[in-house]
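[Automated response] Your request has been received and processed.

Submitted sequence:
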Amino acid sequence: MPSSPANPKTSLAIALAACAVLAAGAGGLTLRHNQFTAATRTAGPLLLAPMIGVIDSCVLAANAGAALPPDLQAACTGPEGSAAALLEATLSALQPHSTAPAQTQPEGGAAAYTLGYTLPVPLLALFHHSADGWAIDQGAVDRLVRTVRDTARPLILYLFSTHFASDAALEKELAQDPANLAQTRDGPLAPSRYYGSVIHNWSLASTQNSLSARRVQATQAVLQALCRLPAKDVAKIKGVTLLGELHQLFPDFEAGMGFGTPYRITDYSPASVAGFQRFLQQEFGRIEQLNRVLGADYAAFDVVQPPSRDIRSEPLQRFTEHIDSFAHGSLPISGWAYVPPRHGGAQGSVPAWVHIYRNGVFVGKTPVNQGRQDVLAAKPEFGDANTGWRLDMDFRQLPAGMHRIDIFLETAPGHLTPLGTRHIALMGRDQSAPQALPQKPLPASAPAEAALQAHIDLPAEQSTYYYNPLVPLWHRFRQQQVVDYLQFMNGVVNQSCLANTPHYTHQIIPFSNPGWDANKYAIEASLQPLQGIRLGVSLYGNAAYGAVFSRWYGQTGHAGYGVTEFHPLKAMDAPAVQQMLGQHAQRGAEFVSFFLEPRWQGKLVERGHNTFSFGPENTQFGSAALYQAVQQVLTTPVAKP
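Generated structure:
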């Protein structure tokens, strides 16, 4: 979920959902059983499905009064208007028909590709205000459907509706209803901003609100219209992605992704609190069993409140009220290190490793390979963002007391350089003064060379940590809320002719950013195999080409996935892009979606452009080189390195 430029239009909302992220025949909706599970995948060429900004620049142009070239205006908004011509003009620039077939087979046994597109459908933007209130804008729906009809290429249907505003008039009304809003312990979250764009902090704790009803209404309208198309046109839809980036929210979304205080998460609405109490009863059966696990004395499940207070600064009636970024029992030890290329490490062929010792005892090691765009921005001379490292230390079973954490960098086998020491206190419930614990000798090490640069972000010196066993239960429940909402929307798609088309999530992977607190998002359960929904992930930076995603993916049990947003955040040539895409294809990727700006008559369409669009004019994050590389992969046989 990287940052994007300010732009109030629908297309930016779709782009921002990365940064960071549903038909029936003429007789109406009919229930179909979804035969796909996480264990099935589709064989065949890898579908490259760029997401092109055709919504505000074409599909909704009639509503917005956009100033378009006359011939494009006619193609978009005429009696049979659609975005088909604009899509084809854009894709033909990437893969000219004169030089390549629709399906490309590079040399050297590398992956074959089919070039299609991702069609974003901004659900809340498909309404207009009529004399009878809010109604579906059938003209916009028809233009979307004719886009599918009039474009021969395969597509991914992206049913978009997230916290990123789509500049829809309906959103403002929905945001006035507290039942639609995520709630911290302090109440409903007001609208906020992310790099200049509006965020509506929508609730996912309940499907019984007007927000969910409008999402369903728009989804059904689109699916009904799509399913009236001939079967050959419906068959072009190779996948449906659900809603976009869906996770729990928190205040100050732009700057609050990390481990700072005060700690505020969602969802503490009355419906969510009651749901948590039911969750605990289902998990434990009897209140006595829960009390044994928590070390508490609750009289009944309906008096258990979610943890919401910080023991360091607020009075507690019970210890189980305590919560912060670490109260679930895990402490991230993290930072960054730049190792000059001659030593290997971040720039070389041999990765550098960070070794962690606690009280002189080896805890574990972690590679220096995670993306830190903030470090690269501050120190561009590094030439590499993959300087981050992080190891999560489970402290649930550790004794209370003062612990010493020593951190070393290994730049060559057996060669350790000390990076720093931190003294931390693991606290008991009684908050008594922590006592120093015995120490063992540390391993031999050598002083750092002058060229080495590094920093330890966490833990802070003399910091304190408390484990509350109610907190991991609260986070599990919040994760289940994310899964339940996805399954709710999946059920809407299942009542359509797209029931047996693969359905995907469209999720971020917070663990790829060492500075993010993943529990704020409560997204982990939705990244695991789900019945009837395949994995869809947005991959940026190292997650697109390195080991961070592949190592995680290999442990999940997934047998296929879609890449819903994609950007390596650095320039790559055609062989490197070919290798990267080939690795995803071999791993089980079924489609890869990256951003493209719409082109007409060889020129960019005037609109607020996305920072992360591949394009010859975009000099940010190596995007121009990436466009050229993809173009070469699609138009010229490229030997596998």
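Summary generated for your ticket: The chain has two domains: 10-255+474-635, 330-465. The two ends are 30 Å apart (CA to CA).
If you did not submit this request, please reply to this message.
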